[in-house]
Design a protein that fits this description.
There is one protein chain. It contains four helices and twelve strands, in the order H-E-E-H-H-E-E-E-E-E-E-E-E-E-E-H. The protein is elongated, with a radius of gyration of 22 Å. The strands form three sheets. Strands 3-10-11-12-4-5-6-9 form an eight-stranded antiparallel β-sheet. A two-stranded antiparallel ribbon has the order 1-2. It is an alpha+beta fold and 240 residues long.
């Protein structure tokens, strides 16, 4: 089963990377979908002529074509499945930690004894009412003066068209996570790229920006770092 997750994580990484660039405002990953659909439709016409209508076709080996079209169809399903998952391949290993230890209303800044860097998948905000969803970007976890969790990231938010810069927001992107807005936390593994699975947390919360339900994925380089964050998120650190 882990090999399946690893494969999906690799597809997610390639799919997400291709979504960042476009031609004529069509992202590369969507162009792959269009090409696969065209190949399947054209190939199906030849298959229909050869097998169903029992007529001669331009294809010398219709059985080989049928096998190729099957592979294209499977690729199309996997490619779009990962796209609709928003490039998040998460294998849950532990259910909602909230039921084991309730979240505090606020957290003391002194609770954060050392800097915690992690990778985050979420919708980030930028001062000036600009928001954008980033996948697996490096972020730093901090605690505000009000005792709220915040994820900070200075990531590349460049928007370009045929290598021409259209928009390049500059600043520190952030995700605000007030403890009172946290709905649940699930422990698991995130698969993304070829680096293997990383210990992760899937946090469901109410967005501080638009008050809608949202999901933030945190992944860590090791289990020790994840335990630090679990101890911060829970009132007494009992869930480790």
């Amino acid at each position: 089963m882990q090999s399946v997750y690893s494969f999906l994580g690799l597809v997610a990484s390639v799919n997400e990377r291709m979504s960042r660039k476009s031609i004529n405002f069509i992202p590369y990953n969507q162009m792959i979908t269009i090409v696969l659909m065209i190949v399947i439709m054209i190939g199906w016409l030849d298959i229909k002529i050869a097998f169903l209508d029992n007529r001669q076709t331009s294809i010398d080996q219709p059985i080989l074509l049928a096998w190729i079209l099957t592979m294209c169809a499977i690729t199309l399903v996997i490619w779009n499945w990962v796209y609709f998952l928003q490039y998040v391949v998460f294998q849950k290993t532990q259910s909602n930690l909230l039921t084991e230890s309730p979240f505090p209303v606020s957290v003391q800044r002194s609770s954060l004894k050392s800097e915690i860097y992690l990778r985050t998948t979420s919708r980030f905000e930028l001062k000036g009412n600009l928001s954008r969803r980033f996948v697996n970007v490096t972020a730093k976890l901090e605690i505000t003066k009000n005792g709220e969790f915040v994820l900070l990231s200075k990531t590349d938010a460049l928007t370009s068209f045929i290598n021409v810069k259209l928009l390049e927001p500059v600043g520190l992107w952030y995700v605000l996570l007030p403890p009172k807005n946290l709905l649940s936390v699930e422990a698991g593994l995130q698969y993304f790229g070829m680096g293997g699975p990383r210990p992760a947390l899937r946090i469901k919360h109410i967005s501080a920006a638009n008050k809608k339900k949202s999901v933030t994925i945190l992944s860590f380089s090791n289990e020790k770092e994840r335990k630090k964050v679990i101890n911060l998120l829970t009132r007494n650190g009992a869930v480790v």
